[in-house]
Amino acid sequence: MELNGRPVGVEELGALALYNYGHFTTMRVEDGRVRGLSLHLERLLGDCRVLHGAELDLDRVRHLVRRVTAPGTPVIVRVTVFDPELDVARPAVKAHPEILVSTRPVPGDLPPLALGTAEYQRDLPEVKHSGLFGPVLHRRFALAGGYDDALFTDARGRVTEGPTWNIGFVREGRLLWPEDDRLPGVTMRLLQRVAERVGIPSVTAAVDLDDLPGMTAAFVTSSAIGARPVRSIDGAELRPDEPIVTTLRREYAALPGEPI
């Protein structure tokens, strides 16, 4: 873990630990390349303007990511942007955001998920911010209830997203993406492009809880895993081997990464 390219001290993480005010993106780096790198950088730039009212040096971000990666060793890199000098009493004071880069191993093959629905909506859902208390709490509740993760719905009963991922569905031979308030995930956006390129019909529309029994399949999307099939939602079985999902996973894995 490095802050601005050097080992980070405990005191420098105080503001992030105590106030949890910042934003981040997580990317999978393989041989110095990242699928959707330009989208990750676009996210960091836009979220920095929203949360800190400041510009972010994207060339520096790339340099700092290169520092912690090595050719031939796939790794998950998280870039967190926060202000170590944040004054919680006066958060509108001009910010000086800094760049924290951390890594973790790439996950192995993961089995299809069993999801349980929960009513919850993140603050400022269009921003990938570091306020993860609610998502982690509902993930914990889901695990305690015998599920693998939580699927969020809003107060109207419309499906939105998961704690750290987007979700897509297959119904009547086409892709269906929930349109309600959720993070516009990088992997979701890449898969939408993939679907268009290979000729899979795709639409973005409201998905209500009552619509779930009519779904053939579902999958969650994130940069760490690509597309991961779902085997059930609230106990209702789905088809994890649906051919459309299999095609999406294969085509996503074949996408060329952008050099860091």
TrEMBL record:
Biological processes per GO annotation: 4-aminobenzoate biosynthetic process
GO MF annotations, alphabetized: 4-amino-4-deoxychorismate lyase activity; transaminase activity
InterPro entries associated with the record: Aminotrans_IV (IPR001544), Aminotransferase-like (IPR036038), BCAT-like_C (IPR043132), BCAT-like_N (IPR043131), Class-IV_PLP-Dep_Aminotrnsfr (IPR050571)
One Pfam family this sequence matches: Aminotran_4
UniProtKB keywords: Aminotransferase, Transferase
GO cellular component: cytosol
Domain of life from the UniProt record: Bacteria
UniProt record similarity statement: Belongs to the class-IV pyridoxal-phosphate-dependent aminotransferase family.
PANTHER family on file: AMINO-ACID AMINOTRANSFERASE, AMINODEOXYCHORISMATE LYASE
Name this protein carries in UniProt: Aminotransferase IV
